[in-house]
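Q: what sequence does this backbone want?
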């Protein structure tokens, strides 16, 4: 594919037309056209989402679940309608299984505090992997401190794949919970989570999957995966910041006590005792992020219009091209070479610190992430302090990767 291959037209996916939906992409940064390759940190929003949020505030806003007046009814319908869209998007069995949270991080903390903390004690184990995001490590460390349970870590190999044999060996009667990422943000590895969930279930453990990097890029069916919990964030999938979802199987959520207390999570309050609300509201104390939910629903509509299979196919193409083109840069080493990968290319460049790479390519209008990507144990495993990371969305082009490669070649010359 040549440098002219940017904005190519795919059957069913017209990248040029899609890019027209994203106003933010059409700007100059440091006198160059913006190339936004930091989608794993946060994606951008199409007009359809921006307009849905603006329209909600312009015409429909009031608090939800509280008023009989027209605006409150409309806001409640929009808010609960968005929940139904999210339920359908991940194929949950019921709207009761979709809990709004601030994002993946809050969803995992909810499970840590409302599921794990009341159940676990000394001798119990929580199994994670070496490639987890800090959001899927620290809440479990906190629960271990609170309960006396032990955090066990499944190793990875040089390609950045989980060692399944070791993972299975570490499962045992003491394993109460397995908490693993569906897709690694630092490496791009797509983990065989269906298989891992089946292994964990066979050992009698509950399973939480961190889907922050999976749901934006592929069709996810929580029932097919067979997990108990699945967490993801709106802002990585074209929706607003500050909102995400905890999917939980209804039976397991029903057994859990509430996490935070306050308005909306109750049916009746007296000083003799409080009756908690039904699912899903039992876990949604206080005024929720209504506009965020509305925007998240619009984002899901937008992704469905394009089609998750078409998105996955387009991003696979971008990954194949980026891997090939970036590998040709002298001294560049890709960190994370798993067989099944999402469109994430983490790399180090001989003789240049990743932070310098970030600054140099930013001068050319190219946004990549540099640092430990909230996955310090992964960096430690690969013996690097940090990496630079180009992470793609369906609206990216091959031309943007060609520009990144050219900027890296220039950096090599500067530092030579
Ligand atoms: N898990 C993974 C794999 C992630 O990539 C991220 C975000 N970088 C998170 C969890 C945390 O998501 P959030 O910051 O939206 O809560």
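A:
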């Amino acid at each position: 594919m040549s440098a002219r291959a940017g904005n190519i037209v795919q059957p069913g996916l017209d990248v040029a037309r899609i890019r027209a939906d994203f106003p933010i992409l059409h700007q100059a940064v440091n006198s160059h056209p913006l190339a936004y390759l930091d989608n794993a940190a946060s994606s951008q929003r199409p007009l359809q989402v921006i307009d849905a949020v603006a329209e909600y505030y312009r015409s429909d806003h009031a608090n939800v679940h509280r008023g009989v007046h027209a605006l409150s009814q409309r806001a409640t319908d929009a808010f609960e309608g968005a929940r139904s869209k999210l339920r359908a998007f991940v194929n949950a069995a019921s709207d009761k299984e979709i809990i709004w949270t601030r994002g993946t991080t809050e969803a995992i903390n909810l499970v840590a505090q409302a599921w794990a903390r009341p159940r676990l004690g000394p001798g119990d184990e929580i199994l994670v992997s070496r490639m987890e995001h800090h959001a899927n490590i620290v809440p479990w460390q906190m629960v271990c401190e609170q309960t006396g349970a032990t955090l066990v870590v499944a190793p990875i190999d040089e390609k950045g794949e989980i060692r399944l044999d070791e993972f299975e060996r570490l499962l045992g009667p003491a394993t109460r919970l397995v908490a693993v990422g569906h897709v690694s943000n630092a490496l791009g590895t797509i983990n065989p989570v269906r298989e891992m969930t089946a292994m964990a279930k066979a050992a009698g453990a509950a399973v939480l999957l961190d889907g922050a990097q999976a749901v934006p890029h592929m069709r996810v069916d929580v029932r097919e995966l067979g997990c108990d919990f699945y967490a993801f964030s709106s802002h990585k999938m074209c929706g607003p910041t500050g909102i995400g979802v905890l999917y939980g199987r209804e039976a397991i959520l029903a057994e859990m006590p509430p996490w935070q207390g306050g308005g909306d999570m109750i049916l009746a309050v007296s000083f003799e005792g409080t009756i908690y609300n039904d699912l899903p509201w039992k876990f949604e104390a206080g005024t929720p992020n209504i506009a965020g939910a509305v925007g998240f629903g619009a984002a899901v509509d937008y992704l469905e219009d394009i089609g998750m299979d078409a998105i996955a196919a387009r991003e696979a193409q971008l990954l194949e091209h980026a891997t090939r083109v970036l590998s040709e840069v002298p001294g560049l080493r890709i960190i994370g070479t798993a067989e099944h990968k999402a469109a994430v290319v983490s790399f180090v460049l001989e003789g240049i610190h990743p932070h310098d790479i970030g600054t140099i390519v930013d001068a050319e209008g190219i946004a990549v992430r540099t640092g430990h990507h909230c996955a310090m144990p992964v960096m430690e495993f690969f013996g690097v302090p940090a990496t630079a990371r180009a992470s793609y969305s369906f609206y990216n082009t091959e031309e943007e990767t060609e520009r990144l490669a050219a900027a890296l070649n220039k950096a090599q010359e500067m530092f030579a």
